[in-house]
Structure formats: C-alpha cells, structure tokens
Amino acid sequence: MCISCKRVLEEDGHHVDYVLTGTEGAERAVAGDYRLVLLDLKMPDLAGMEVFDRIKARRPDLLVIIITGYATIQTSIECIKKGAVDYIPKPFTPEELTLAVDKALDTDRLREENAFLKSRLVPGNETIVGRSEVMLDVIKQIEKIAPTDFSVLLHGESGTGKELVAKAIHVASARRDRPFVAVDISSLTPTLVESELFGHVRGAFTGATQTRPGYFALAHGGTLFLDEIANIPYELQGKLLRVLETRRVTPIGGQQERAIDIRLVCATNRDLAALVEAGTFREDLFYRINVIPILLPPLRERAADIPLLATHFLESAKRKSAARIDGFTTEAMAKIVAYGWPGNVRELKNIVERIVATVDGPRIEVRHLPPEITGRAPAVSPAEEIPKNVEELKEAKRAVRELAYERIEQQFLLRALKEAGGNVTRAAELTGMQRTNFHALMRKYGLRAGEIGGS
Model pTM? Predict the structure, then answer.
C-alpha cells in the first residue's frame, strides 16, 4: 500500500517517503521537513492513535490524514477531533487519495497565506493582497508615509489598484476617522469640474438651483483622492494649485473663502512629466502633487501574487453566492498564472467572480476558464449542453451573437477612449454618440475613462 500511494502521489508532483512501522514513522515525521503525513491506524509495533499523539505533541503544525478500515472509523473520528485534517476509508481509489491530499495542502496553503497577509497588511486595511517583492515594497512605503501629511502621486496601469492604495494610506493615517472622498476626474463633465471640486452658490450659473459644497469641502479633515488627475482641464490647473497652496477654497459665485484641511492623494496611468514637456500639464502643479510618488506594478510583473489574489477573490465571491468551491486545480492555476492580464487585478477579480457564478463542480478546472486564458477558441454555444431541438439551437445562436457583440462593443469603447486620450467627451464626439450614452456603455463594462491612456 505504501508503494502504491508513493507512486500515485509522485505522479501528481509530490515528493514522498514511506516507512513501515509506527515508531520509525513518528520519529521521521517529527524530524523531517514534511508538510503532510498519511497514517495507517493498523501497524505491527505501535497503535496509530499513539503515533498520531506523538506527532501532534511535537509538530502540531503537521497535517495528518488517517487511513482506516471499517473497524477503526470511530478512532479516525477521534483523531479528527484532535486535529487530523481528514481520513480515507479502505479501500480507496487513486483519485480519492489525490483529492484528499490536494484538499489538505490547499487548505493549509490558504491558512498560511491568510496568516502572512495579516502580518503584512496596513493596520485596519484588508484590501491589499500580495507577497511579491514589488508589492511588499509598496506596503512598506504606505506604512512609512501614511503618518505624514505629504501629497502622494500614484502611478500605474488601469486596474492595478490605485484607489485601494489611496484608501490604505488614509486608513493608516491620523485622518482615518475623517472622510475619504474619491473623485474620478475623467467621469466629470469638463465644464462642471470646477463646480464639483470647489462647490458653487445658488444662482452662480444656469442650473445652479441650490448651494452645493465641492469635494474639497466634503473631504475637510480627511483625505481627497483625485483619480486620473491628468484629465483636469489646463485652465483649471492654476486654480487647483492655488487651493493646494493656500488651503482655502472659494465656491463658484461666492465671495467668502473657506479654509480646508485635506491630505491629497492623486493617481494617473499617464506620464505626467511627458505632459509637462508637451505643455498640457502645469509644471508647478506637477511638483506640488508629486511629493511622494508610488509606482504600482502591473499584475504581469508580480506573478507570485496571482495565486494569492485568485484565491482571495474566490473566497470573497463565495461569500456573495451559494457556491461551494474548494479551490483551483493545479492545471487551472498554471493557466491563470501564465496569462498576461492586460486588465490587471481588476480583470482577475471580474473573471473569478464570473467563474464562481457559473462553475459546476467542487474545483475550478481549465474547462471553466475563459478562452482568452486557455488560448482555445470559444465554444459554439455558451451553454454546457449541446442543443436538443431547434428552439434550443435558436437560443444558443442568439446567446453567441450577444457574446460576440459584447466583445466588439467593448473593443469599440476601448479604441475610442485610447484615441481620445481617456477623455469621455472627446471619445463620444469621435464616435458620433451622445456623451451620456457613451458613459452608460462604459458603466456596463466597468470601464473608467481616465485609466485608458492615449495611443
């Protein structure tokens, strides 16, 4: 039996040693660098229960799976109560063996990763996931700069988590109990950016039917996060600079200045230094907001974090659904890690949530992954079963057409936004659409204009 288990598990990629007596087994398990023990309760020299107690007394972290016959199932249950992770009744198939071992190791890996994250996360924040060197460096920077009040400029591609980092800075700062106000500059109508940021009084312009505070006033005492700062109109950049330097703001149409106390965090996916050279972004404003720059790496440069992130998103998605999924198969995770992730962390999160909503099985397999990850052609029908009659065939055709159209529609939006340098108004003009309709399509696909740089 030991030889058979060794052969099966080694074919599955594990390194396996075996011994034939309980005494030697207990000694080897405690002294060796092992993660898991398969323990038979029936051995010639020492009862399996005693071997289990010896192992757990000196190596409580070691995983133990009990192998048992019918007569010793009750003893196995006692071992489970004492800390064994599982038991396998005889006789068992190679598939049952590998499933039990993989499940135990996956559970242990998740426990270790959660413990690691808790030791590395910024206090009070549970959104930054990563243990790669580049992400550990980002976390260290957050821990170091959060207690200060310096302005921060976050650089990074679309979907790299700039707003999450901004929130982490806020949560780890002395301002944590005050407002965190996030503003996506690219989503604001250019003519109303000033009003949205600084506020206005009643009657200041057509449509100003009541006095409204701006985002600066709303963030008073806390943190103001200006996402996609590169999209702020040039003519407004001087006024923004004055507000940041004087710490006072005057609403449109108002006469009285208001003191504001905010910590400013800005973000962009564009090269602001190049925009300064091109004359489209003020140099003095650039230096004012770029006191502490932080670069967020794309997901393809932090591949070590991908399994951790995928598992994190899986657990999060399971809490929002009735899905009962243990994890990913080794083959599926290998495909996920090998993929380039042009949409970065946001794309990974969306795909995991989509899979959880549709998966049929205890583990996510390669067949559950979308074509862009596996490299295979899309299925003829998005349904799992081949149509049985003409009505089902018609429905399958309709579904395929909808999926194809959605892919084209999404690429249409991305192309227009890139050509317009991330400006929604300009992109709408280029495509001949109303700005409101264009923005509605963006919301449909979770796109944020300012995060799409120019081509």
Answer: 0.60
